[in-house]
Design a protein that fits this description.
- Keywords: 4Fe-4S, Iron, Iron-sulfur, Metal-binding, Oxidoreductase.
- This is Aldehyde:ferredoxin oxidoreductase.
- Belongs to the AOR/FOR family.
- Its cofactor is tungstopterin; [4Fe-4S] cluster.
- One of its GO terms (molecular function) is 4 iron, 4 sulfur cluster binding.
- There is one protein chain.
- The protein is of the alpha+beta class.
- It has three domains: about 240 residues, 4-Layer Sandwich (Aldehyde Ferredoxin Oxidoreductase,  A, domain 1), CATH 3.60.9.10; about 230 residues, Aldehyde Ferredoxin Oxidoreductase Protein, subunit A, domain 2 (Orthogonal Bundle); about 230 residues, Aldehyde Ferredoxin Oxidoreductase Protein, subunit A, domain 3 (Orthogonal Bundle), CATH 1.10.599.10.
- It is built from 30 helices and 17 strands.
- The strands form four sheets. It has a seven-stranded mixed beta sheet. It has a six-stranded mixed beta sheet with strand order 3-2-7-4-5-6.
- The longest helix has 27 residues.
- The chain starts with 6 loop residues before the first strand and ends with a helix.
């Protein structure tokens, strides 16, 4: 196939030597002009934005205007690595980070995903790759890090699905079969072309299975931007990975941190999270037990049928004793797969395929939240979301919303083109995935996502807009990830105040708040919503996975620490400070770590403001995520709700009708949320409208003239 490629641009370079985790170079690619060039990373940018997501946000800010739309040529798609990306001594160090203007939200969206692309990009000489402009036809951006060569070449014959395309590319760009492990690709699929829910897959070669494996940059539609630019693939080839390739300042602290973390995982994981056996799906029955598993569009938090999709079911299906790390040296090894599942539908009907995972989000989203408790449906639906390049979480939450609309008579078979979308309609749900992926039928409508569907259903089918807003689980235009947050005020705020939209990777507080009762006061919740988003932001600056931090735990952690301090896992924080010192030679304490994160976090909030969002009204949770929208929901937890009304809200419910009690509960819960907003904004150094104050950005060191002017205009307007 490569013989059919036409080379549009060629760039030769001398790969920059990595020094203390950095190359201090970025590769700029313009697909409109076919320009490829190296650009230096300014020392100021390195000092203030650290790496990874910070670099992506800064250079995206430079590239776009306040009026830039996601599909404008000047929008950039930026792939970024951090100073710890690619180390092999500590688990979870292979993370790629992407930044772009989101098709769903209109503001910057950042994502992180595993695979080998970020390490190979860095080893090839670049801390970031910026892609701007639009190609006239499908192209492949290829970087050979050993030869110091980058090209833009047409791709007229390659497959257009995310199952076959990575296989073809690993063979096409490898120097023989034994070299396929030295290739990593970023690809998407036809579902990204036909929807706003497109994801980007990042690959690595699974030598045991003799197959490519995929991890995802998924939320907010980065794959839609990828395909709008007519990128067929980004391919990086690099051979020669070594444990010292990042040239750390001092290897000993890195070895110390890695040794104790790897020992902890290898000796304790089988009794703790079972990440090496099941991965993140280990929590399904735990979440069901504590009323947090989303069921039927987040109406409920548990279901008797969860036994059919609990973790032990997945343990039996997942291939055990396989090398399931998505980067070298990751002893957590949570990237599981179900081998040789025979598909029942779609273009690969009857074929046996490897199905990724599943992750917890897969089970909670495509399973219980759509009313399905068939593990084989969950597996097949997950496969086809990957096959077509569709964000699984975004689609699952959209599907659950459409199913509730169907059961309420807002849509019907005439509107859906014959699809029965009752909860649990598995075969029709699969057909909807195929329609979305192939760009026809009601699938094109579903691909708009919940935010735009609410408007469409209200305007075209005269549905009750208030009801749609209450049950439509999206914030800022992005679908909510798969945790039922009704009884966790901290998780509600964690979702609603997240910078990019309601993805739990920023603030996952539901266990601390709802299950363990570690955040009893507004101040406790506000403190958690200050610390944990910042600490998690740091992973995105470094190129690290968060799972080794909080999905593993030292044996004595709960003996030494209690409450929020135990949840921080101090020994793991010490590990990260050791890693940073060992790599960069700079001694960092926890306050210094949080300061690095806060600078980037506040910058992203101001970036949202620049794009016309980023204020208090954007931080609101749909009421389905706060409390019961329907009588059915209220009655399912009647005792709990009435206890809160009488004991916490001090409401005399004697003689009140069901509707009156529901209204009183809503008033109380929304009031509680507003009070938490106030407490969080104060703690973060933001004004009452949720905008970082001038004093805050000065303390951060990002009081650039444009930011000062932007904050001043907002303050004057307010």
């Amino acid at each position: 196939m490569r013989q059919a490629h036409k080379i549009l641009a060629t760039y030769s370079y001398k790969p920059a030597r990595i020094n203390k985790g950095y190359t201090d170079r970025r590769l700029y690619v313009n697909l409109t002009t076919n320009v490829i060039e190296e650009r230096a990373i300014d020392p100021m940018v390195k000092e203030k934005f650290t790496g990874g997501r910070g670099y992506g946000l800064y250079y995206l800010w430079q590239a776009v205007k306040p009026t830039t739309h996601w599909n404008d040529p000047e929008n950039e798609l930026i792939f970024c690595a951090g100073p710890l990306t690619g180390i092999t001594q500590y688990p979870g160090a292979g993370k790629m980070h992407s930044v772009t203007i989101s098709p769903e939200t209109g503001v910057p969206v950042d994502n992180n995903g595993g695979g080998y692309l970020a390490p190979y990009m860095k080893f090839s000489g670049f801390d970031a790759i910026e892609v701007q402009g639009k190609a006239e036809e499908d192209v492949i951006i290829f970087i050979d890090g050993n030869k110091g060569l980058a090209t833009i070449e047409t791709a007229p014959e390659e497959p257009d699905n995310s199952c076959d395309l990575p296989e073809v590319l690993h063979e096409m760009y490898a120097d023989g079969a034994g070299d396929r492990k030295n290739v990593s690709v970023a690809v998407s699929g036809t579902g990204a072309e036909h929807s706003l829910l497109g994801l980007i897959h990042v690959s690595y070669w699974d030598a045991k299975r003799n197959h490519t494996r995929l991890k995802q940059l998924a939320r907010g539609g980065p794959g839609t931007v990828f395909r709008d630019k007519k990128i067929k693939a980004l391919v990086v080839h690099f051979s020669g990975t070594t444990p010292l390739i990042n040239n750390p300042a001092d290897l000993e602290p890195i070895k110390t941190a890695g040794s104790r973390m790897n020992k902890e995982i290898l000796t304790l994981d089988h009794t703790h999270s079972r990440m090496r056996e099941i991965g993140t799906a280990n929590t399904v029955e735990i979440l069901d037990k504590v009323d947090v598993l989303p069921v039927k569009n987040f109406k409920f938090g548990s279901d008797a049928r969860t036994v059919d999709i609990r973790s032990d079911v997945w343990f039996r299906l997942i291939s055990q004793d396989m090398p399931d790390g998505c980067w070298l040296g990751c002893t957590m090894s949570c990237a599981h797969g179900i081998d040789t599942v025979q598909l029942k539908t779609g273009p690969l009907k009857g074929q046996k395929v490897l199905i990724d995972g599943p992750e917890y989000e897969t089970v909670g989203g495509l399973g219980s939240n759509t009313g399905s408790f068939d593990p084989l449906f969950v597996a097949e639906a997950s496969f086809y979301c990957d096959y077509y390049g569709i964000d699984l979480v975004g689609f699952a939450t959209t599907l659950a919303f459409l199913m509730e609309c169907y059961e309420n008579g807002i849509i019907n078979k005439e509107i859906t083109g014959g699809l029965d979308l009752h909860f649990g309609s598995d075969m029709d749900a699969l057909e909807l995935i195929h329609q979305l992926g192939e760009g026809h039928g009601f699938g094109v409508v579903a691909g708009l996502g919940v935010h735009r569907l609410k408007k469409l259903l209200a305007e075209q089918y005269h549905a009750n807009a208030d009801f749609l807003n209450d049950i439509g689980m999206e914030i800022k235009g992005m679908e909510v990830s798969e945790y039922m947050s009704k009884d966790s005020l901290a998780q509600q705020a964690g979702y609603a105040m997240a910078t990019k939209g309601p993805q739990h990777d920023e603030a996952w507080l539901i266990f601390m708040d709802q299950v363990k009762g570690q955040l009893p006061t507004f101040d406790d919740k506000a403190e958690a919503l200050s610390f944990f988003p910042l600490f998690r932001t740091w992973f995105s600056l470094m190129g690290l996975c968060k799972l080794p931090w909080n999905d593993s735990e030292p044996r004595d952690n709960r003996d030494k620490y209690t409450g929020m301090q135990a949840a921080k896992i101090p020994e793991h924080i010490e590990n990260y400070l050791l890693l940073y010192k060992g790599m960069t030679g700079v001694a960092l304490d926890l306050d210094g770590l949080l300061a690095q994160s806060k600078r980037v976090y506040d910058f992203q909030r101001v970036f949202n403001l620049r794009m016309g969002h980023g204020t208090r009204e954007d931080d609101w949770m749909p009421y389905r995520g706060m409390g019961p929208v329907t009588e059915e929901e209220y009655l399912s937890r009647e005792e709990r709700y009435e206890k809160q009304l009488t004991e916490a809200a001090h409401v005399d419910i004697a003689g009140m009708s069901l509707q009156q009690k529901m209204a009183a509960l809503r008033e109380y819960r929304e009031s509680q949320y507003r009070q938490l907003q106030d407490a969080v904004y104060t703690r973060r150094g933001w004004d009452a409208d949720g905008v970082p104050t001038l004093e805050t950005v000065k303390a951060d060191g990002i009081d650039f003239p444009e930011i000062v002017d932007l904050i001043g205009k907002h303050a004057h307007k307010a």
